[in-house]
């Protein structure tokens, strides 16, 4: 018995260990990573790979019954330090292992083109996983020759080119690459396909009827491409479909009643397209549906009553559409709903009380609708709720509704809900919040201390009646990204601790009664983009306290009591696009360095990355989310949600306002460099000297206000180059001479904009200039007929202008002289 056992063993052991040349290939692979040029590569774990042992026993390796290697699970094995490239050539030894049926080299930071010459030798390959690398170039044609391949995953690489066809595939995942062009017709020959994922590419064209040929398809993901046209009816013949994602394309048309044929559908995502019409009643056939999103389309009408059949529904997102019905009572009969997102529609009526049965509700977003009625008291007793956005929904708070202590909301938005009373009473139980928007209510009391200790990232308490000073501890909270306390009754100085909140990007403190100097530690806010403290009583010398923050895009200190002057280090604020220092008591002259503000020199390529209108709170939120600063689950503290609100397209504003100060001296001609500036206001100062000729370079300027100064000389001819200008005010200065009348300047004919100067003339104010008069006289002699025609219009203009000029402009003498000459 024993000897037989030994004999069997001695026979079977060698036949089960892997062939020596395959072992060598693996060891070679390992050594190229550990030796040679790339000695700095680290392995996750390949310790078991050594010459002494059977390679069939190694980690990441599987063998067939006869001992040849069939599977290599090498995902995430290569972990190079940053900046060390790992080229796909390291795979070369693996291509000698011809018996491979499965090769997984995903998530290895591999660069370069896919080694087609090597892979084509692995003729037995069934399963090839190359996702999450940096492969570039096109899919090599050799891959199309792998006749046994069933599963191919190249998700998340940098592949481009057009697509070819693979025989006999059941799974094809090419998402998150740079493929472009249409889906090639050859692809539709893959009748056996079960999973097709082409999401996040640059594919385009219409979705053709050919889609119907994928009879066995269970998953179809074409999201985030440029597909247009309607959804072909053949798609609804794909009876096996369980996941359908066509979101983020430019599809239009309506959702066909045929959608009711997709009885196995578990997830339907059509968000971010241009689809319209009603949701068909037939949606109620899809009793397996768990996720349903139509977010950001043009759907209208109501939620069909058949929704009552979708008992498995967990996520319903109809936000950003034109739905205008009541929220149906049947919503409350869907036991598994965890996310209900109906925001930004025109939903009306009260919240159905049946909703209190939604015992798994975690996320309820109803903001920006036209609901009415009171916020039901049960809402604050739904203990599963972690994200509640009902701001601006039309629901009004009543005194009874209080958050019960068992609730733990991580995000609340209840702006414009009529909430009154003391803020600390209202919120005292909520300590885990990350996002809080209670703006536009009637809250009173001091800034609650417990909020300062929490994990809040986004705080909007603007437009309330809050008072007292900001607790210095607030800024020791390192999480804060956005703080909006504007339009309250806060007092006291801004604490020096502010420098500790280094993550902060948006700081709105305007419209309060803050006093004292700008804290020096503001300069430590190295991520700050917006600092808006206007309409307070900030004092001190600007030249001492100007925060030096290169990331700052908006600085608004207007309407305070700042003294001192604008120092030449202003140009360190190189990202600045909006600077408003108006209505202070600044003195001295505008420094030459003002012309070096690079943010005002170059137009931004896309829309600015900061919110301008603070009133559009949600665009701020969108921005913060889209910026990737907050991962979705951070904002809503909610695992499954991929919710995003589409960001508004914000207008580009680039402006400089120094008006209503005591600034003197001359305008530095360097200011003509600010080519991207759209608005410049230096009015109501004591500025003297001339208007620089360089102002003709302010090519983007739309509004230029130089009024109420002591500017002399003439208006430079170069202003005729300002093709965008629509508002020009030079009134109340000491200007003289002819107003340039070429280009857009000929339309600057608002008399008030030129009044109270020394001696201006020009057709805009219907005052003929001496040189025109001389020219006229000359012409008169040369060609009487022509001059009559030429001056016919002027004569009419003159009559109209005559009286108004006398009345308004006080150029009576000029006119008498002119009349006499004429
Ligand atoms: C090392 O790098 C050089 C060039 O950088 C290359 O020619 C050589 O083939 C590399 N050797 C190995 C073992 O990768
Ligand atoms: C492959 O080998 C691993 C151990 O390395 C084992 O857990 C796994 O079940 C094997 N897979 C197959 C398909 O044999
Ligand atoms: C593929 O196989 C051919 C023929 O067997 C051989 O010549 C070639 O070197 C192999 N290519 C690679 C990259 O292993
Ligand atoms: C692929 O990337 C490598 C470097 O990682 C580069 O040398 C090569 O030119 C790229 N190929 C293509 C087709 O972009
Ligand atoms: C793929 O990308 C590379 C590098 O960006 C480019 O040179 C090449 O033309 C692209 N190929 C195709 C087919 O678009
Ligand atoms: C693979 O596809 C080809 C046609 O492309 C077909 O002839 C062949 O039978 C298929 N093989 C298998 C195993 O399905
Ligand atoms: C579709 O699936 C069925 C059942 O799994 C199978 O019998 C049939 O061959 C598949 N059709 C194609 C074209 O692969
Ligand atoms: C879908 O629902 C409609 C009515 O809601 C019904 O008439 C039809 O038979 C259903 N379709 C399927 C395929 O079950
Ligand atoms: C609701 O979810 C639970 C847990 O995920 C599941 O067991 C149950 O079947 C679901 N209910 C329905 C009606 O699908
Ligand atoms: C603001 O606070 C002051 C006291 O600091 C108080 O007298 C005043 O009434 C408050 N204003 C408003 C609008 O609440
Ligand atoms: C201002 O910043 C400095 C340096 O980080 C720090 O030492 C100081 O404590 C800060 N001031 C306050 C009041 O926090
Ligand atoms: C602003 O502050 C100064 C000094 O702190 C004070 O004299 C002045 O009255 C305040 N102005 C207003 C409008 O509160």
Description:
With 822 residues, the protein is an alpha/beta fold. It has a domain at 533-772: Leucine-rich repeat, LRR (right-handed beta-alpha superhelix), CATH 3.80.10. Helices cover 14% and strands 20% of the residues. It is built from 11 helices and 51 strands. The strands form 7 sheets. It has a 27-stranded mixed β-sheet, with no helix packed on it. A hairpin with a 5-residue loop joins strand 2 (61-63) and strand 3. Helix 9 (770-782) runs antiparallel to helix 10. The longest helix has 26 residues, at 784-809. The protein starts with a helix and ends with a helix. One 2-acetamido-2-deoxy-beta-D-glucopyranose (NAG) binds next to loops.
* Strand percent estimate: 15-25%
* The CATH architecture of the domain at 533-772: Alpha-Beta Horseshoe
Overall 3D shape = globular
| DSSP summary, beta strand count | 51
* Number of alpha- plus pi-helical segments: 11
CATH superfamily of the domain at 533-772: Ribonuclease Inhibitor
The whole-angstrom Rg is 36 Å
Bound heterogens, unique: 2-acetamido-2-deoxy-beta-D-glucopyranose
List the uncertain runs.
1-15, 607-651, 787-822
Please identify the top-level CATH class of the domain at 533-772: Alpha Beta
Instruction: Name the quaternary structure.
Output: single chain
Give a short account of the largest sheet. Answer: 27 strands, mixed
Q: How confident is the prediction overall: mean pLDDT?
A: 84
Question: What percent of residues adopt helix (DSSP H or I)?
Answer: 10-25%
Distance linking N and C termini: 137 Å
Helical/strand content category: alpha/beta
Please name the CATH topology of the domain at 533-772: Leucine-rich repeat, LRR (right-handed beta-alpha superhelix)
